[in-house]
Amino acid sequence: xxxxxxxxxxxxDKIGSLEHFMEGMGEVYAVVEIGKTTHHHHKGPYFYAxxxxxxxxxxxxxxxxxxxxxxxxxxxxxxxxxQRQIRRHKEKETERYRKxxxxxxx
Length: 106
Known about the structure:
There is one protein chain. It contains two helices and three strands. The chain has helices spanning about 5-15, 70-105, and strands spanning about 30-35, 45-55, 60-70. A three-stranded antiparallel β-sheet has the order 1-2-3, with helices on one face. A hairpin with a 6-residue loop joins β2 and β3 (about 60-70).
């Protein structure tokens, strides 16, 4: 599947917008794969999008994939799921940090 320039910009904007959620996490690597699930079906979840985001701090990678009738909707759903995963990870880290500091105070 060939990517035209508007689609490249759309993917970069949606996945790139997650960057501000990852501040302070170190160097970030993102791999995005988009395509068709099959070549002969023309109805149903025909397009897929998948993204893997790795952080060099040794954290498990964030991964999301989605199938949808519209390619752009699949990309948006992947970005939303990655955002949810990143927020949850940061909340866990913050809670862990607070618990550690609370124990030190006692």
